[in-house]
Design brief:
Strand 4, helix 7 and strand 5 form a beta-alpha-beta unit. By secondary structure, the chain is α+β, with helices and mostly antiparallel strands. A 10-stranded antiparallel sheet has the order 18-25-26-27-28-37-34-33-30-31, covered by helices on one side. Strands 24-23-29-36-35-32 form a 6-stranded antiparallel sheet, with no helix packed on it. Strands 4-5-7-6-10 form a 5-stranded mixed sheet. It has 17 helices and 46 strands. The protein folds into 4 domains: 250 residues, Glycoside hydrolase 38, N terminal domain (7-stranded beta/alpha barrel); 75 residues, no CATH class; 251 residues, Golgi alpha-mannosidase II, domain 4 (Beta-galactosidase, Chain A, domain 5, Distorted Sandwich); 84 residues, Immunoglobulin-like, CATH 2.60.40.2220. The longest helix is centred in the middle third of the chain and has 25 residues. Helices cover 25% and strands 33% of the residues.
Amino acid sequence: MIPLLSTALSCLEKSLCGVIIVLTFTAIVLADENIKSSRTFHVMPHSHIDVEWYWSYATTRSWTREIMDSAMKLFKESPEFRFTQDQVYLIRDYWNSCSDEEKALFKTMVDQDRLALVGGLFVMPEVAEPCGEALIRQILVGQQWLNETFGMRARCGWFIDTFGQIPQIPQILRRSGYEYNFFWRDIPMERNFEAMPTNFYWRSPDGSEILTHWLAGGYDFSSKQLEINLAHQPSGDLLLPFGSDVARLPEKFATIQEKTKELLTPFGLADAEIHVVTATEYMKLIAASAQDLPRLDWDFNPPYRAADLRGTYDNRIELKKRSRAAEAWMFNAEVVATLASLKGSAYPASVMNQLWERLLFTHFHDIIGGSHHDPVYENAMAELQAVLNNSRAIAYNSFKTEKTGYLTVLNTLSFPRTELCKVPVAELGLAADSSFALLDEQGILHPLRLLSEQDGEDGPVWVWLAQDLPPLSAVGYRIVAVPEAKPALLQTDCMENEFFAIKWDPRTGDLISIYDKTLGHELLQGPGNALTAMQEKNPDLEGPLYLTGVEKSTADYTAASLHCTQDALGTTLTVISPFQDCQLQRRVRLYHHLSRIDFATCIEDFSGGDVMIKVSFPLNLRKDKMVRTYETPFAATQRPEGHYAAQTWADCSDGLHGVALLNKGTPGYWLQGADLALVLLRSFSNYTYYQKAGLRKKVPGYESSTQTKLADEHGTHWFFYSLKSHAGGWEKSDLFSSGQSVNVPIVVKPGRKTTKSFLTFSPGFILTALKPAQTGNGVIVRGFETTGRRHTIELKLPARIRKVHKADLLERPVERLHPQNGCIRFECAPHEIVTFRLE
C-alpha cells in the first residue's frame, strides 16, 4: 500500500516542491557528464498486489489473474521481458487456476529466471506486530510450496510495503537460505537521510548480514521515485521499479522502454543505458562488486519519513488482541500435540497446517495493521476466532488426564513459572456458591477464587496462582472443599503485598504511589494508570497521526465509586468513573507471591470519535540516563522517544532502576520523557477516504457505505497489562519470560496427570517452537538468546532422543551435535535464533 493521503504537504506545496527539485536535479545532472554517463538503469517490472485492503480477496483474485495473464503474454512475445512477483498465496491460487499449457509456460519462465518469485512468504506480513515465529512460518510455508512446485526457493527477501522493519530480518533470512533483501520503509529519524545508500549489508544483533537494497523512493514508477533514487545513488547501477500497487502491465514490451525514456528525459538521461531485469538479476549484479558496501545495524523504524504509518499500531485493536491470543494458543496446541505424539498419539498435521495458513493470512500488513475496510475486518475476526477455538480444542484434547476430583495444569513454556491459572466454572463442574482449594503434591493448599463475567473473562472462571511450575511438564492438584471465605471490603486508600505498596487518589482513582519494596524505590512521579483521550483531526486509517493537542484525562473526572477488596489470592482496587462519554472501569490487582502488578481496564459502551486513548505511568527515573527498550521479534531493541510497536513489553531504565509495561495484544507504546505509555485504542468517527478511492477504482460495495463504520470502535473494550520493575537495565531482568508468561495461558484440564520436564534450557534462552518436523521424521525445537550477550547455553534432552542436529529455519540439518550425559552445550551469539532437529 502506498499512502493515499499526503502526510506532510498540501498538493500545491508538493507540486511546487517537485518542480523545484526536478529542475535543480536536472541542472546538476546536465552539468556533470561523468555522472550522467556512469549510470545504468535496471528497470524491474513488478506489481505489488495487496491481498486485502479496501477490497476483499475475491477482487484480488480477479486482478491477480489479469496481471499474471498479461505477464505470460509478454513472456511469449518478448524474450527480453522480465517480471518479479511475490506472495505465495497469490501465486499458488493463480497456479491452481492455470491449464496444463499455462503451467508449463509459467514453470519454464521460472526455470529460465525470467520470472522471479521473490519473498518466499505466504503473504507479505506486517513484521512488527506478529510474533517472530509467525514470520518464520510465513517463510516455511511459502518456501516449501515453491520448492515442491518449481524445485526452487526465493532468494530475495521482499518487505517493500511493510510498516517498518525489525532488526532480526537479516538473521531470519540468512538462516532460511536467502541471499538478498529488499525494503522501503523506513530510515530512522535520528539518522542522516541524505547520506543513506541504496545498497548495503544489513546486520542483525547476532552478526548475520544480508545484502540489502533500500527502495529509497518506494516501489512505484514515478518522477518522484526516480528523483529520490538519483539523490541516493548518483552513479553506477540504479534500480528503477516499473510498477505500483496492483500495477497492470502494458500491452507491448516496447512500452516499458518508451515509458522509461519518457521518465528519464526531464533529468537529462534520455540516452542512458537501460536493461529490463528481475529483482534477483539486479542483486546478483550488485553482489559481484559488493565487498566495499557499508554495513549497517540500524533499526529501520518508525514508518515516518516515507509516510507516517504509526497509527497502524493502534487501528482495529480488537483484531490485534485476537491475533495475539491465536498465536499463543497455536503455540500451546503445537507443544501439547507434539508431546502427545511422542507417546503414540496421532499429530493433527493437516488441521494444524490449515490453522497456520489461516493465521498467517490475517498477518498481511493491511489486515493486521488495521488499514482496511469493514468486510476485511469482519472476515479476519472470524478467521482468528476459528484459529483460536480450534487450537484450544487441539491443546485440550491432546492432553489426556485420569481420575475425577483432580485438576492438572501443563506449563508449555521452557522455564519455571509462577502464573495465574483459569478454568471455566462450567468445565470444572464445581458449585459456584461453594469454596474450594487445590492441594498440590507437597501438601500445600492453593486457594481458588471465582471471577464473575464482570471481570472481562469469557464467563465465570475459577482462578488460582500456580507456583514454581516446572518447564514443559504437567502438575496435578486435588480439589478439596474449604470453609467459605468471602472477600473483605477494606476502608483504605492503599494496598500492598510482599513486593509493592500502592496508594491512589481518592477522587480520581489514579495511582499516586507505587513503592517497590525490594528495590526500596518509588516508581512514580505523577498519576499512574491514568487514561488520556487525545483528539485527532481527520485521522487517517492508513496510519498518519494528526493530534490536535486537545486532551481529556482521568484526572478531569471524579470517580463514581472506589472499593478495595482482599481475598486469599491478594488485593484488588476497583475504580468506576465517567470518561469520554462512557463509563471506565479500572481494576488494579496485587497477588501474593507474584512480583508484578496486574491491571484490567474496561471502556464500557464507548461511542467512538476521532480519538486515541493511552494509559500512562510517569516514572521516577533519571531522564538524562533514560534508556528505552522494546521487545521486537527475537530481540530487545533500544529506541529514542516516540511511538513504536513492541511485542509483549517495553522498558524504561536509568541504569539503577527500570520499569516495564507488559501488554496482551496492544502493541503500540508511546515513550516520551519519563512517561511510559501504552496506547489502548484508536477510533474514527467517520472515515470516508476508502469510499472515495473505492468508487474511483470501481471496487464493489462503496456505492452506499463508507465500509469503515466499525473503525469507530463503538462498544465495550477490555485491556489487560502489567507493570514489572527491576534493578539495573532490561538485560538484568526476566522480561522476555515474563512477557511470554503473561500472554501464553497455562493449559488446564480436569483430571490427574503428572509428567517430568520434556527438556530444559539454562537461563538466557527461551523456547518459541516445539513441533514435528515439516517433512520427514523428527521434532523441531527452536528458541533464542534473551540477554543480548554472547554466552554458553545448556540444553537438557529427553532420554529417548538418539540424534541431534542444529538446523536452519527451513528445518534442514546443518551440524550434527553429540549430547554428553543427556545435555548439549552450545555457544550463542546475542539474540541468536537456534533451531534443533531431534530424532
